[in-house]
Amino acid sequence: MFELGNFQNHIREAARELARSEIRERAAEVDVSEAYPWDNVEKLKDAGFMGMTIPKEYGGRGLGYLDAVLVIEEMARCCGVTGRIVVEANMGAIGAIMKYGNEQQKRLAAELVLAGDKPAICITEPGAGSAATEMTTTAVKQGDRYVINGKKHWITGGGVSRLHLIFARVVENGEFKGIGGFIAVRDRDAGLKVGRREPAMGLRGIPETEILLEDLEVPAHMMVLPPEGVRRGFAGLMNAYNG
After folding, report:
1. Who has the most CB within 10 Å: 6, 29, 64, 194?
2. Domains of the chain (ranges plus CATH)?
């Protein structure tokens, strides 16, 4: 039978104590008010739970997904929104960037997440939800950059997340090359705009919004590229995103 080690038991107990003593009391208020719990993010930062899976060389703790899941479970018992923040600060977009990103991408992502940012991953579109390969957002190569146009929706963290991993159909010299991931930062990169907020039945403390991409220019070195290249790299990016 599998048993947790001493360190994992310590992580779980620390998360449980934080969740019960400081997170739980505001859980209902966070949901009803639909306000992002920045105070909880500060507590997660102080406890070392934001970016705990980021390698040590980039400032993280270098822990595994099991360690992160133990924290997620304890937070989610008391506040689903806070649990979701821990998910996306340790898995998903940050996992894909840490696996396939170049040095500049990794350092940028680590800096933002360790400062309290919950990354947003931009895949879903109005006409392409679970069928991600049917997305219509394009990234057209122009010189040393890509120009991205399209609309995403149901993007978790729209308006609060800064780091965005955007998936788009890559076009070079008029030819479709595959689906790639591009890093952009809200409030830094012109062309990334937050659209309307989607109504939700739960987890309302994290906004779900449209993300509007209007001539968003992303330098070519901010394309996250698995070793398989653009043509086959989408599967690798999705596998890394899914953990």
Report:
1. 194
2. 6-91 (1.10.540.10), 120-241 (2.40.110.10)
